[in-house]
TrEMBL record, chains A, B:
Any one GO molecular-function label of the UniProt entry: oxidoreductase activity, acting on the CH-CH group of donors, NAD or NADP as acceptor
Keyword field contains Lyase: no
Name this protein carries in UniProt: Quinone oxidoreductase
Residues covered by the Enoyl reductase (ER) domain: 21-348
Keyword Oxidoreductase recorded: yes
Keywords: Oxidoreductase
Organism: Recurvomyces mirabilis
Amino acid sequence: MVKSRQWILANKPTALPTLTGDTPTFKLSETDLPDPKEGEVLVKPTYISNDPAQRGWISPEAHPDRLYVAPAKTGEPMPARALAEVIESKSNDYKKGDWVFASAGWTEYAVLPAKALQPVPELEGGLSKTLYLGALGGTGLTAYFGMLDVGQVTKDDIVVISGAAGATGSMCVQIAKKLVGCKKVIGIAGSEEKCRWVEGLGADLCLNYKSSSFAEDLRKATPGPDEFANVYYDNVGGEILDLMFTRMARHGRVVACGAIANYNSMSDRATGLKNWFEVIQMRLQIRGFIVIDYLHRANEAREAFQKMLKEGKLQIEGGEHVVKGDFEEIPKTWLKLFEGGNQGKLVTEVARL
Amino acid sequence: MVKSRQWILANKPTALPTLTGDTPTFKLSETDLPDPKEGEVLVKPTYISNDPAQRGWISPEAHPDRLYVAPAKTGEPMPARALAEVIESKSNDYKKGDWVFASAGWTEYAVLPAKALQPVPELEGGLSKTLYLGALGGTGLTAYFGMLDVGQVTKDDIVVISGAAGATGSMCVQIAKKLVGCKKVIGIAGSEEKCRWVEGLGADLCLNYKSSSFAEDLRKATPGPDEFANVYYDNVGGEILDLMFTRMARHGRVVACGAIANYNSMSDRATGLKNWFEVIQMRLQIRGFIVIDYLHRANEAREAFQKMLKEGKLQIEGGEHVVKGDFEEIPKTWLKLFEGGNQGKLVTEVARL
C-alpha cells in the first residue's frame, strides 16, 4: 500500500482559481492507494502537462453535453496529462522504470489499468521526452491541424497568430513560416522579450499586446486590402480577437483554438466582441476546433515534425519551460499560464523522492 | 428641367438615425435636375426598398476597404434600391411608362444613364412587381444562398432562424421547411402575432424574444445533444447570437447574415458575445456572407422560387409590408426596420403626383 498526496478539486472556480479563502479551488489531501491488481500498474506522474484547456474542465459551466471531455468532479484529483514512471507493474505490457503517458491528474502516485497507458517512445538526438507533452504531443498536433486543416494556410497567406510565445502559438509560427512558407507571419505576445523570441522562431514580426501602441502597431502591420490578414490563428479570444476582426482580409479565415482571455471570467465576461459586423461585411469564416477530432491523423503531424527536425526547421530550444518543484507546488506552477509567466510549453517536473 | 426633392445624408449617425436635433441624419432638400441627355432616362423611384443593410452604408465607421459597397457620402441622397417608372427617355432601351430597377436613392426623380438600369420583368399570376424588391429579389436570394450554400442545410438538420418575421427570415423559414424539408425549423421573432405568422409559413415553432421566458423557451426547444441546433441563420447578432452559441450542436454551422441588434450602437456596443468558448468546444463553423457574392447564380434561386410558387410552397401573403406615403415620409418609414414595426419586406410606395 502506498500513501499518495493529491491535489483535489475542492470548488469549481468562477474566476481566477485560488488556493486561499473560503472556497479554495484546490485542496491538498492524502490517500492510501490499493496495491495494483493483475493487469494494473503503479505509476508516478513525473512530468505534468500544464494546459489552459484544464481551466475549462473545472468550470461550473462545463456541461457533459457541451464539453469535449467529461467535466472534472469536485472531490477528485485535478485532471492532467503527464509522463509517468512505472514504479510497480502487474502487467506484462510494462515493467518498473518504463515511461508511460498517463492521464492520472495531480496525484503523487496512481494505480491504473495497463490498457489506460501508452508507452513513451525513445526520442533520437538526445531530445527530452517532455517534448511529447508539447511540440511533439497534443500541443504540436493542435498547431499542425489547426493551421493546415482548419486554417487551410498556403504560402500566399498573411497569417497572424496570438499567444505566439505559448506552447501552441510557438509551433504555429514555425509551421506557418518554415513548413508552409507563408508570405508573412505576424505573432502577438505579451512582452518584448517573448516577441523577440517569436521572431527568432521565424515570425516576420511580433507585436507586444501589452504595449500602449498595440492597436496602432497591428494596424500598421496589416495596413490595407493587399496586406490584411488572410488567416488569424486565435489562442486568446477577447479583445485581441475583436480587434483582429477589423484587420482580416475579405474571405479571411479565423481558427478558433483558444480563448484564454475569457477563461477566468466565465460568469461575468466584461469584454465581448463588438466588431461582429466585420464577420459579415468581410465574409469571414470562423472555425472552432478541438485537437481530439484529429488524433486519428496524429502520425501525419509527427512525421512532418520529424522531417522538420532533421532539416533543422523546427526550433525546440526555448520552447519548453520546465518548472521543477515539490508536489505541493503544482497548482502554483499551473497558474503561471494565466499570468503570462511562461514561454512555450509549461511543464511541471515533480521532484523525485 | 425637373424639380426634385431629395433626402440628403446630412450627418453620419453613431446611434439610431434621427430627423431632429443639431445633427439630424437626413435633411430634406430640393434640386433642379438637368434634362436627360442622349442615352439617359428620367425616372421616378416609386417603390423603395427598405433594408437594414442601409444602416451600415451610412455609418461613420464604414470604410471603402472594408464595406462591400462604397460607403454613402454626406451631402448626397441617401442610397436605396427601388423600382422606378420611366418618365422621359432619351434611350432606345426604355420608353415612358416602363418599369426599371434603379439605385437612385431617396430622390423624387433622377436622371440616370440607361445602362445603369435593368428592366423589371412582368410577373405571372397577378403578383405584384414589388416582389422583385423582396421575396423574388435580393432578399430572397440572400435567404436562398445563405441557407443552401453558406449553411449547407439538409433535411436532417434542426434549423433556428432569427428575424424570422423579417424579409429575409420569412423566406429562410420557407426554404428550410418547404424546399429542403428540414427536420425542425424554429423561428425567433419579436411578437406573438409575428410568431404565429411565422408558424403559418411552415416553422414548427416560433419563439418571441421579447418574452421574459425566451431563454428558457429556447432551451426547451433545443434541449439536448440530439436536439441542439445544427444550423443557426443569424439576422440579428447581439444577445440572441450569444445565446444561440449555447444551443448549437457539435460541428453546427452559423450563417452570419445580419446584425441588426448592433447597427445603431456602433460606437458603444454594450452587448458583446460572451459565450465564445462554445464556438471552440462545440467546433462551430461561422460564415459571414453578403449576397452580392452570389448574384452570378441568381437564376438558380429565381427558378427555385418559381417552382415553389407553382407548387403552392411559397407563401407571399403577409410577406410584404407596403407603406404608402408622401416623399417626405421616407425616412420615418425606413426607421420602422429598427423598431420591429414591419412584418416581411418593408416597401415604401411614394405617392404619385
